[in-house]
Amino acid sequence: xxxxxxxxxxxxxxxxxxxxxxxxxxxxxxxxxxxxxxxxxxxxxxxxxxxxxxxxxxxxxxxxxxxxxxxxxxxxxxxxxxxxxxxxxxxxxxxxxxxxxxxxxxxxxxxxxxxxxxxxxxxxxxxxxxxxxxxxxxxxxxxxxxxxxxxxxxx
Length: 155
Ligand SMILES: [Zn+2]
Ligand SMILES: [Zn+2]
What we know:
This protein is mainly β. It contains 2 helices and 9 strands. It has helices at residues 30-36, 138-148; strands at 2-7, 14-27, 41-54, 59-64, 70-75, 82-87, 94-96, 111-113, 129-130. Strands 1, 2, 3, 4, 5, 6, 7, 8 and 9 form a 9-stranded mixed sheet that branches. The protein binds zinc ion (ZN) (2 copies). The site of one zinc ion (ZN) has 9 residues, from loops.
């Protein structure tokens, strides 16, 4: 079991998530570009997540994904910082938007997805998994993540 702590940009919302990290990847789809107002989004998947929040209740917005699932994003009602994503399917991992973690130094994406729509100036490490769209095999991302972890990740 790991603990992930972070906050929104204005500091009104602090979170503490307990669970087991499954993978961390960067997504270059146009939805993530618009959501992040930047070049790509990042996702840290946590299985069996237990979320503790302090501050005002989060607001939520739901959209339909490219694969037809319903995806809810949760964000600070004061500053709008996106904190969590989760597909509305039982057992789906919680996706933390990991730029909001208090400690981001250990964040190393194991894959880049939706590279077909990445910004042309973004240079990707050839040693990191790359997929033009959704990865056909999510298990590979999970295995690669676990293989890459050093013992100090949970510090
Ligand atoms: Zn905020
Ligand atoms: Zn995306």
